[in-house]
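I am writing to request your help with a piece of structural work I have in hand. I set the record out below, with my sincere thanks for your time.
___
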Amino acid sequence: MALQTCTLLLSKANLLLLVSLCVAVDGHFKGFRKFHQVQDGSFEEQWFIQRLDHFSSADSRVWKQRYFVNEAFYKPGGPVFLMIGGEGPANPAWMMNGTWLTYAEKFGALCLMLEHRFYGKSNPTPDLSTDNLRYLSSRQALADLAHFRTVIGEERGLNNRKWVAFGGSYPGSLAAWFRLKYPHLVHASVATSAPVYATVNFPEYLEVVWRSLASENTECPLLVKKASDTLVERLKDPKTYDNITKDFNLCSSLQIQTEMDSAYFLETLAGNFMDVVQYNEDNRGFEGVVGTNITIKVLCGVMGDTSLGDPYARYAAVARLMMDTLFMKCLDVNYSTYLRDMTNTSWYGLAAGGGRQWVYQTCTEFGFYQSTDSPNQPFAGFPLVYHVKQCADFYNINADQIAEAVAQTNEYYGGYDICSTRIVLPNGSTDPWHALGITKDITPDLPAVFIKGTAHCANMYPARKEDLPQLVLARDHVFLLLQQWLKQ
């Protein structure tokens, strides 16, 4: 999904896209943001016949779900590793790269990757109408995994092999929940950067952004806050709009007619920092990601450069830096355009890469809204009400329905209180999503691996010589746990 002008406008919808898979997906969606990823076509697409509704015996409709296979390391009797896809197209580059393949080589594992329903080429319905999206949920996705594991196990003679689920970000949650809900089908799970607790309001995300920026330079988040506050004040005066349009290289003259317009604009600019913090120094080059050279150090360097002018001018310089890095000619910050794209139900629409689907899941299951409602963060202007209104604008879902859906999710999965065994839960301290994850051991069989100084899904990416010692140790620790569990 090319990060052109239109794509950053989807960053709102993308404000929630967790990695998906931190790995097996591609895109730039609301929440689990990702930079541009280029997919690799070396592995042949395979297709699995899947039920549309696993929970209605009266509904016999089926569809084709995409998956990939890597048999390079498999040894007879070895385990089966299943990488779970998430809120974007499955990226075959992960069939050739990643820590899970290092483990697969050592254990002689067969490697499979299953794309998530409604993302990529796994299209169960003719379009993305709200009526059809009712078949998009984590529960249906887990049932997909269960049916896939059962049928593939029978067809390939793998029923007696030990299956291990892998996933990062939202798929990390799915990996944990797969083991939780289907323990007879999956022997163990590696649930990386998994936000297992659903919450409507998630201001802690931006609190972690503050701390992560401060870890580089204590003045950095203060400068960001000063710049953001200055911009908010200027937005109150329409006479400043022409200058703001030039300062941030907007695609059209800034027009603020509603609070949604200003919130969308402010969130877009904050997203430059949120994206970089979330994936700071992750080894993502093999995915074809653009922008991995822009780190917290780089952003704080710009914000501290007095030669660029006052903090507001430096904030604008960050925006221009990100546009240049992502090959964007200008920045589209019109909420009306975003609304148009997010309500386009065609599989060929700009939001069909995952934006429309993922935001629907946040409205009907998770929340995860990264609001500015906390005073302990550097931004302003996109409160919870802004996020909640999008659910109404896009799907006619109101605030009470969101709250009820989130409560049901925690009731169904247990939130932080996971009751299972053989699930390891790695998280990075720099990653804002760790605030909704498990960072301390629950039991000896539900260990956490909290990695200081690393970002979203860092342990999943290929090793390199620049890796922090604690990241190296974390990967080794997960390997030793798998070695122990696969003997059980």
Q: What stands out?
A: The chain has two domains: 45-197+416-487, 200-408.
